[in-house]
Design goal:
The chain is α/β, with parallel strands linked by helices and about 325 residues long. It is about 35% helix and about 15% strand. It binds 3'-phosphate-adenosine-5'-phosphate sulfate (PPS). The site of 3'-phosphate-adenosine-5'-phosphate sulfate (PPS) has 20 residues, from helix 3, helix 6, helix 10 and strand 12. It is an enzyme of class 2 (transferase).
């Protein structure tokens, strides 16, 4: 398997639909953040999957009641794959990109992309670009003003390097991180218009969301804690979604080769599931002065973000990358 948690064969009910086939193609053609996942799923002939205990394809398709809206490279795939182990969660595998790229296709298109759910099950999807899409809060609010929003945030400096590493893997000829990060390196002027840097100005983007949603409707998950204590973060996510705490420590193990937590083998069948090779890439070495300069750049925005969310993510305590 490539970009998703390595997983067991698909349930028989998970037949590909015209809608999901279209999505797969779009996901493959576009620069979706989970491009390898799209490829793998297309190969498997499905775009969706239920909980670990395969849920038969009964029920009806509903618009999502919860969304993972960001941030790109924050740990969104790890979170989605862990939460969909919960029997009361059904989620789309690929990123639908409805509120940014596919909005003109309409809500019926969006609903059709969703897996079928039974009463009481939560429908979810993740598209990390929503967090930085200007129109997204307004559009999501127009669909469901009581929707629950989840944002996985990570040290913006590490996030920027992770973002750059992903681009570099596809376009090895791009300039170095150090070159792209500055408008003027001698003056130490950071290029905040470079998307790898702009995405990490969380306070700025959050302001846009708070025009439409109260803070109580948004859960901020620490990308760092999701790696060191996945069960602890999952407890918060399940509480926030109003679900029983089903996903716990016993679902995770730390895979030394991967260097990340992975999902244990489900009881019924299959193998343990780690995320694929595009998650947890080795980052290139970045000049420590540049990292330091970026940390200084983000500091006031981070402080503002901590104040807005009432949570201290402790990114100032970290030294260097990772
Ligand atoms: N369990 C587990 N396994 C592997 N990787 C994990 C895990 N938990 C969090 N992470 C971190 O997730 C980072 C990728 O974030 P996203 O899934 O949000 O990326 S994407 O925007 O969908 O492309 C990815 O970033 P990089 O390490 O820079 O590749 C990981 O650090």
């Amino acid at each position: 398997a490539r970009d998703a948690w390595l997983r067991t064969p698909l349930a028989p009910g998970e037949m590909i639909t015209a809608q999901s086939a279209l999505l797969e193609r779009e996901a493959q053609e576009s620069s979706t953040t989970d491009e390898e996942l799209a490829g793998r799923r297309a190969a498997n002939g499905s775009s969706e999957r239920g909980g670990a205990a395969s849920t038969p394809d009964y029920g009806e398709k509903k618009l999502p009641q919860a969304l993972i809206i960001g941030v790109k490279k924050g740990g969104t795939r790890a979170l989605l794959e862990a939460i969909r182990v919960h029997p009361d969660v059904r989620a789309v595998g690929v990123e639908p990109h409805f509120f940014d790229r596919n909005y003109e296709k309409g809500l019926e298109w969006y609903r059709n992309v969703m897996p079928k759910t039974l009463d009481g099950q939560v429908t979810m999807e993740k598209t990390p670009s929503y967090f930085v899409t200007n129109e997204a809060p307004k559009r999501i609010h127009a669909m469901a003003k009581d929707i629950k929003l989840i944002v996985v945030v990570r040290n913006p400096v590490t996030r920027a390097i992770s973002d750059y590493t992903q681009t570099l893997s596809k376009k090895p000829e791009i300039p170095t991180f150090e070159v792209l990060a500055f408008k003027n390196r001698t003056l130490g002027l950071i290029d905040a218009s470079w998307s790898a840097i702009r995405i990490g100005i969380y306070a700025l983007h959050l302001e846009n969301w708070l025009q439409y949603f109260p803070l109580s409707q948004i859960l901020f998950v620490s990308g760092e804690r999701l790696i060191v204590d996945p069960a602890g973060e999952m407890a918060k996510v399940q509480d926030f979604l109003g679900l029983k705490r089903v996903v716990t420590e016993k679902h995770f193990y730390f895979n030394k080769t991967k260097g990340f937590p992975c999902l244990k083998k489900p009881e019924d069948s299959g193998a343990p599931r780690c995320l694929g090779k595009s998650k947890g890439r080795t980052h290139p070495h970045i000049d420590p002065d540049v990292i330091h300069r970026l940390q200084k750049f983000y500091r006031p925005f981070n402080m503002m973000f901590y104040q807005m969310t009432g949570q201290d993510f402790q990114w100032e305590r970290e030294e260097g990358d990772k």
